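Quick one - first record:
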Amino acid sequence: MMNYLSTTKKNTDYLTVFLISSLFTGTCSAQLLASELLEDDVLVFDSDTLQTVDSGSWWDRKPAALKLSAEQLMSQAPGNVDALRTRAGLEYEDAFYPGWFFRLDTRYTYYWRTDREAERNRGDYGELQTNDLWVQYSQNDCNLKVGRQTLVWGEVEGTFAVDIVSPFDYTELLLTDFNEVRLAQDMLVGACFFGQVQTQIFFTPEALTDVYRHRSKTYDEKVGSEWGGRLKWLWTGGDITFSYARLYSNQPILVLPSYESSLSRFHFLGLSSSIAIRRLLFKLDIGYKTDQKIPFTAREADTLDIAAGVEYTTATNHNFNIGVWTNEYIDDDADLTPEHYVTFGWNKLYLNDDLTMSALVNWSKAPKAYGGTLLSQYKWDDYISTDLALSWSDYKDGRQNTNPEKAITLKVKVVF
């Protein structure tokens, strides 16, 4: 590891050299710890919380929030390094005028030569990614947000019967928070609140698809615009949401006879609901898609997705959630096995909220796959935090095989 760093950093910029030198000690410790823990079956995750700024009066408003961060991440699999990345981040948000709010969240990541993404691209490289770059205007009970952002629909966590607007970036490590792998895209999102009724519309001028590797797009053709909206009714202890959208599929499908990748262009109808009974929260998502391409054929058929989930919080603030998701083609001639998925999550705060423990387990019958992660996040002070994750997985579908079968991941983050 020492030889590798000393020969590689000569070819990197000054920013990367500084970050590596400041966080090198944590990385070496991770390698020693990984070699011990990976002797047995073990498990891997991550999430950040964002600070909000109240607009207040124009003259008395709070100052803008600026946060710089340096991060070193290493994921060790049996016999080799799975991920070795150095990251510099910048977050800035400001309620710069009454009714106006601006947010920027961008980061530069350097992928070292032994990182799996660098091996795929035949050499180490850097990548700039912007998760948020938007401005929002609020007036009375309505707001309009324009810029790079993500949009989450649906109720059942870890399932995607309705949550299909924002694609995913599978080059990132999936820990216990799916928001960590969501791919931001340029969008316009408007929302209004009328008592117990909420409305929302969105427009994406050029949609993005799922990303599986950098500098090698899964789908090379230009994707068109997407748009849609939803209407939500709320009452004491529950809500129900109806949604409609005109979308492109996030994953290309290989079709015959050309053996070329193609995207489905379809209408989407969704229904979501959540009902609270004391500490129990029951959730339901139903999604109907038209004109879905059937893999390896020249035909299309409609599909139906149904997801149901339960969330429970104990008196000691243990939070558990479980979701079941199934989808199938509504076509007797499709002759395809329905897909079934199960997801389970848990989280709990300890030590005056400085320690966060969380877990995520996923299992699917078709395609046959399973994976799990146990994550420990500890905040040492206002500036330094560490994430330690153990993961295991077995994915038969190569597109989803973003994590090795066993890995231990350590992330050291310093915030300025």
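second record:
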Amino acid sequence: MLKRSVLLVLLLLTSCGHPNGVMTPVPLSASTTPTSKVAMLVATTREPSGDPATLFNGERSSKPHLTQITVSIPPKREPGTVQWPKRLPPDPATDFAVTNVQQIDTIAEGRKWFGQHVVGGHALVFIHGFNNTYEDSVFRLAQIVHDSKMQATPVLFTWPSRAAITAYQYDKESTNYSRTGLEQALRTLAADPDVKDITILAHSMGTWLAMESLRQMGIRDGHVNPKIRNVILASPDIDIQVFAKQFVEMGQPHPKFTIFVSQDDKALALSSFITGRVSRLGSINPAEEPYRSKLEKAGITAIDLTKVKSGDGLNHGKFAESPEIVQLIGQRLMTGQTLTDSKVTLGQGITAVVGGTVTNIGTVAATAVAVPATIIEQPLMQRGKPQPAGDTLGGDLKPQPLTQ
């Protein structure tokens, strides 16, 4: 039965093909159907491919590269989806299409671009997950930015993924390879006077990279840069014990942390199988002990998407494919707002567990979320003595000295 489940996940992971080579800019003419545009800054530790149709491949570069890219989004589409072209070149009237690509060679050029595209001084840094090409991550960020209606300047950090299901270990090592690259990118962004605050949105294996870079920054400076206000981890592919260590070792004060979890995430189930059946953070039930008490103590908000429906057969990309959830990211989580006031209008009866009481915090805003999700907003009130965490979150979330 287990082998059959693993084969099913592998089939799902390898069955979502689309044309490669979509990075060549498509000219827009006066007769072109009006489309929306998303302009982004892309930093990468990938090796240049030498082909303008792909720009970068899945191998590791000895130095980081910076590119500005504009993506055109067609007017008629279902929110939460990426309209990949069925043939090349893409048709901007029906497909996502790249309309501008320009390499950036200096920090000064990057800051000039940011100054021209600044939105209230807010920056979103997106870090993709396992099995993603360069173009996969560009189009996914464009979709998230467009559908969330966020007021922020988008920055993509894309690391060397070979985009192959058999390259899980290579991809994991590539995140380790890219830790300093992401840290430097975050430091450079934070040093820009046009940047007031930074939100990090990381997905799947990219959450490991985000946590490692923040931990590295915290070890160097004693804390994370104060401009990094919010960290959102979607389907985090991280060992629970390791996450606890990463969290405390990045120092105080912490950014505001939000995690999206789902107990029916098939990709994380496969990851758990590959890594010795170790539980992944993105698969926990945050309403159960000891997770609830530990998340409360750490001030982490956990949003359970298990009952949220999406078109993703793996249930691994719900955060981006559910229109309400992606708007939650762009309209509330990025601005540090709570999830328990009367202005929350998400899905059908989304509930919150606050102080041990289940409270309805939403009314019907759309029909895409067909079943309630459970949101645990921190801090929660303590209800009796918490159960021991044992080997789940590594005991107390306190730094431990190497020697006594």
